[in-house]
Design brief:
Family: Belongs to the protein kinase superfamily. CMGC Ser/Thr protein kinase family. MAP kinase subfamily.
GO molecular function: ATP binding; MAP kinase activity
CATH architecture of the largest domain: Orthogonal Bundle
CATH topology of the largest domain: Transferase(Phosphotransferase), domain 1
Shape: globular
Protein name: mitogen-activated protein kinase
EC number: 2.7.11.24
Radius of gyration: 19 Å
Number of helices: 9
Structural class: mainly alpha
Keywords: ATP-binding, Kinase, Nucleotide-binding, Phosphoprotein, Serine/threonine-protein kinase, Transferase
Order of helices and strands: HHHHHHHHH
Length: about 190
């Protein structure tokens, strides 16, 4: 289970939530290029990028794109300086892509293929959630008959709830218990 505490945004095709889109929707190390470039029109493909970064960590035990830990003025420099001129971008030297096999020589070829499709720079060419779930690397876990779907759409009012930390932890615990097979619900862990 991958959780997002306070950075998630509503994705509702019946309503326009573009006013709520922000570049602060992903932890820096997992942030998709379109967010780093201050795009306001991102899609769920940003989550695919983030999961690709997590897959990299699973293959190497370290982040692929570690960044500065501190927020602040450095994060806003693209906004303050404006967008770079096209001719400047085209003048930058070409840097060939490092093959995934070089970075992860022990990894399964199918994992590297999935990784390549997840960490595609162009978000429109990035693998979709559905295609990623049915990718050969995940085939042993994929069961189209067992794909959880929300029972009802999330409402914007739910997004505004400001739950206390302990209540949020309890709700996450209860949700994960639903996915355990054959085990009765256990008591929530003690507060820290």
């Amino acid at each position: 289970m991958i959780c997002d505490f306070g950075l998630a945004r509503v994705a509702d095709p019946d309503h326009d939530h573009t006013g709520f889109l922000t570049e602060y929707v992903a932890t820096r190390w997992y942030r998709a290029p379109e967010i780093m470039l201050n795009s306001k029109g991102y899609t769920k493909s940003i989550d695919i990028w983030s999961v690709g970064c997590i897959l990299c960590e699973m293959l190497s035990n370290r982040p692929i794109f570690p960044g500065p830990p501190l927020p602040g003025p450095a994060e806003s420099h693209p906004i303050r300086a404006g967008q770079p001129a096209r001719n400047y971008l085209q003048s930058l030297p070409y840097k060939p892509k490092i093959p995934w096999t070089t970075l992860y020589p022990e990894a399964d070829a199918r994992a590297l293929d999935l990784l390549d499709r997840m960490l595609t720079f162009n978000p429109h060419k990035r693998i979709t959630v559905e295609d990623a779930l049915s990718h050969p690397y995940l085939e042993q876990y994929y069961d189209p008959a067992d794909e959880p779907v929300a029972e009802e759409p999330f409402t914007f009012e739910t997004e505004l709830d400001d739950l206390p930390k302990e209540e949020l932890k309890e709700l996450i615990f209860q949700e994960t218990e639903k996915f355990k097979t054959g085990a009765p619900p256990a008591a929530a862990p003690a507060a820290m």
